[in-house]
Design a protein that fits this description.
Blueprint: H1 3-20, H2 29-67, H3 70-99, E1 103-104, E2 107-108, H4 110-113, H5 119-126, H6 134-141, H7 146-151, H8 155-169, H9 174-199, H10 202-217, H11 226-252, H12 256-273, H13 276-290, H14 295-308, H15 311-327, H16 334-350, H17 358-368, H18 380-408
Helix pairs in contact: 1-10, 1-12, 2-8, 2-9, 2-10, 2-13, 2-14, 3-11, 3-14, 3-15, 3-16, 3-18, 10-12, 11-15, 11-18, 12-13, 12-18, 13-14, 13-18, 14-18, 15-16, 15-17, 15-18, 16-17
Bound molecules: aspartic acid.
Aspartic acid binds next to helix 18.
Length: about 425
């Protein structure tokens, strides 16, 4: 049976198991078993990240360094990422303005929803998720200690170091260059093989991760927030099913249906892990081995995308901030809405590809437009499930970028046959 079918079945079984073993106190044996299985899979994925990104970027850039065109690829990648993030924010803005989920029966919804969290809980949730200001982003590109950056999962620093290393590797003397090139290519091959091996366990891992969320969340939390929940879901769906396939079709001349099918394992993993960073090895595998994008493009576009391109996150930040304003009975004017758009764009670049990373960005937006931080409490109950959905959009947008850019670079084998 194909892997994506196995994962899908695991997902359905997980929902059933989660409902049967419902336990909001998170103490039951079933919860602990789900947690153990999920964590084991997540750890295995995370274990791949540092060596996979390093070897992949170094080999990819060394390749480009020899053929030329680093600058061109960089401009295309940044251009694509900025465009899709902006489009997704505008979609979010449109949905939240038209549907006004923060207003129920003409009244601000705050009272009805009731704050579901204490300030302490919010501060704890958003702590240590990485700040989103521009200076901070640049500083993180230059980590003072590369080993610490690797240990802390600071991807931006690793990417920048890998880019420099790969580029300069092509500039050194003959035999040393050959040895290094062989070495890094060998590491990359081993890491790819390891990714393939771990992917075989994806159905079990997905089962654990999803059953854990379902068993501890339950269905009840969605009722008061249903309107907000479906506004976000609708906007994410519009981006996922209309905008991104449109770009694939018009900019890349690529059949979106095939691309969805090929990316299914990555999509389902993103959904279950809520982390673009943890999904990265699988995204790379799908894009390079199934869609046929060269290592040169994959290794440049995808690690960068998993770190800086977060369409789903940007869209969510925008809707969440606007929803909180509406729920508090505040009407945000054009200038404030523009501030929301700009801050959402910048912070979506800065937040890490890990679960609940958006919350820190939302807190930045809230302070930028002068809203109380406690507002985040309104959305905490449904954040996890929406996190799963926005991570899917984040990962899928990166993969679309990779195939569109590969096509524009004249790669023939992309989604061919
Ligand atoms: N979980 C998201 C990701 O990893 C980030 C976020 O929006 O919280 O892509």
């Amino acid at each position: 049976m194909k892997l994506h079918w196995q994962i899908l079945i695991a997902l359905l079984l997980a929902i059933v198991a989660g409902v049967l073993a419902f336990d909001p106190s998170k103490t039951s044996l079933a919860y602990r078993i789900f947690d153990f299985i999920g964590l084991a899979f997540l750890n295995a994925l995370k274990m791949l990240i540092v060596p996979l990104i390093m070897s992949s970027i170094i080999c990819g850039i060394a390749n480009i360094g020899e053929q030329g065109g680093v600058g061109r690829l960089g401009v295309k990648t940044v251009g694509y990422y900025m465009t899709t993030s902006l489009l997704s924010i505008l979609i979010g803005l449109l949905f939240v303005n038209i549907l006004s989920p923060g207003i129920i029966d003409g009244e601000p919804a705050r009272e009805r929803i009731g704050l579901s969290a204490e300030t302490d809980e919010i501060t704890e949730k958003i702590g240590g998720r990485g700040a989103g200001d521009i200076a901070g982003i640049f500083l993180r590109m230059l980590p003072p200690n590369i080993v610490m950056a690797a240990a802390e999962g600071q991807m931006l620093g690793l990417i920048f170091f890998g880019l420099l290393f790969g580029f300069l590797m092509t500039r050194i003397e003959g035999s040393k260059r050959e040895v290094l090139t062989l070495f890094w290519n060998g590491v990359l091959d081993v890491m790819m093989a390891m990714t393939n091996l771990i992917m075989k366990f994806a159905p079990i891992g997905v089962f654990g991760l999803v059953a854990k969320v379902v068993s501890s969340t339950g269905i009840g939390v969605f009722v008061p927030l249903a309107y907000f929940f479906f506004t976000v879901l609708g906007a994410l769906a519009a981006h996922f099913f209309i905008v991104l396939p449109g770009l694939l079709w018009f900019m890349g001349g690529i059949s979106p249906v095939r691309h969805y099918r090929i990316m299914l394992p990555a999509i389902l993993t993103a959904f279950s892990t809520s982390s673009s960073a943890a999904t990265l090895p699988i995204t790379m595998d799908c894009v390079e081995h199934q869609a046929g994008v060269s290592n040169r493009t994959t290794s440049f576009v995808l690690p960068l995308g998993a770190t800086v391109n977060m369409d789903g996150t940007a869209l969510y930040e925008c809707i969440a901030a606007m929803f909180i304003a509406q729920a508090y009975g505040l009407n945000l004017g054009l200038v404030e809405q523009f501030t929301v758009v700009l801050t959402a764009l910048l912070t979506s670049i800065g937040v890490a590809g890990i679960p609940a990373a958006s919350l820190v960005a939302i807190s930045i937006i809230l302070s930028a437009v002068g809203l109380p931080l406690e507002g985040i409490g309104l959305i905490l109950a449904v954040d996890r499930v929406l996190d799963m959905c926005r991570t899917v959009v984040n990962v899928f947008s990166d993969s679309c970028g990779a195939v569109i850019i590969a096509r524009s670079e004249g790669e023939k084998g992309v989604l061919a046959g």
